[in-house]
Amino acid sequence: MCELKKRVEEALFEARPYLEYFDELKDTIEKLLAESGSADEFRMLLDKEIENAVEPFKTDLRIFLQKFEGL
Q1: How far apart are CA 23 and CA 4, in angstroms?
Q2: How many CA atoms lie within 13 A of 40 on its CB side?
Q3: Per-residue CA distances from 32 to 23, 50, 54 (Å)
Q4: How many angstroms separate the first and last alpha carbons of the chain?
Q5: Cβ contact 39:4 at 8 Å
Q6: Is the pTM of the predicted complex or chain greater than 0.90?
Q7: What does the pLDDT look like over 11-40, one tens digit per residue?
């Protein structure tokens, strides 16, 4: 889990310049991280969050996901 948290923090850092709603995104990501027990579960929860989100926050979630997957 510590490894996943580090990866999430790094993705947040890299995505920050491109995000419109950083604080909201950070809160959402931390909530998903707390609910998940593994990287796979985190990714599943994130996919659901993206599916249910509305623009422009949906774009911020996608940017985060792109950075997260690139690590």
Answers
A1: 20
A2: 0
A3: 14, 12, 17
A4: 16
A5: yes
A6: yes
A7: 999 999 999 999 999 999 999 999 998 999
